[in-house]
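Section 3.1 - Work completed
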Amino acid sequence: MAMQEWEMRQRQKGNTAGAEVARVLREQYGDVPLPVAPERALDIVRFSPEQHGALTERGRLIYAPTGQSIATLREKGRKFWSTWHEEYPDFENLPSRLTEIAIDPQELFLPNSNRKTLAEQEKMIAKYSEKLAKEVPGVQAILGEAPDYVELAFLHLDATDERLFGEKYDYRYTRTKTPTVGSNVALVGGFNARDGLSVLHWDRGKGYDVVWASPLVVPSENR
């Protein structure tokens, strides 16, 4: 594991102070490798059996990302029809979170969450999370990072032969929290059967018709 990946892991865990220390060290010394035991690197935070049952009863599918990035997935033959990110190796090598993720494939996007800013979409996610936590204690809904949605899309394709963000979903995009260039953040969607998945970016302060918010349900940090 390199310094940048460790920084990303700390941000996912809510350890902002640790992440900032890693960022400063990375800027000074580069993305140096860190000694991490392989068995620890793949530890995945999972839902409890009770949470798993409650979520699946409510129509949600559960997946366990394994820390893949755009770069590692492309190396494994996954198709991306967007190419701009090939010039940004730091972005392409960001890993997905190591927690189980639940999604509702029948309601992948929050209703009426398009044409809104990132801040407005995050408020909608927070409200949705509060309601869900009352139904299933110990879980929370989040707006994920770009690699979370990227690996999730391919896990779902393997499991169901269905493309999240594809034709069934009108090729919509979900906004993510991952910064790209300037005030932009990454978008994931437009999953074309011929050309593959698309990763674009859009200004966090602007809404757009096809830019929605797709909540990811994960184990709560305070469960």
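Second construct:
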Amino acid sequence: MAKKIIILITVLLLLPLTGCSQPTNLPKQAPPGSYEILRKAQIASEWQMYQLKIKVAAGSELPIVLKLASGDTVDGYFYVEEGSDLDFQITGKSLIYKPTGATGSGSVASDRFSFVVSQAQGSTYTLTFRNTADASARQTKTVAFVELIFPATGSIFSPLEAK
């Protein structure tokens, strides 16, 4: 019995030293969506502005999450720089914004939006950029420019990329 305990302790102590290597046969694939902050500015002491370049692979989506307080106002606009299959929407607890110029597939080339945070919709709002193109389409990537202006007390988040 003592011999088994000593072997178990030895294995547990040596396990962190051995580590694990990453499998080399995994396929390399581009992340489904990414963003780049082109410019970030403080406007007076009450507002902040972000200019983002959003890249979304065909059939994928990229959510940008804003954490805001009740009564905060958000203004913004976006336009597609490359590709043509961008579906955009803003949700709180439910859908609160969908571009008016959206086609049947939901795609739109540009739009301006504004909303006021309400307690009924919660404090977290998700801006979802979805590339509606089929992965086999010739144009597989959509790139959009986005500008957001919201109170300096708000926060902006995006999911982490898996490397």
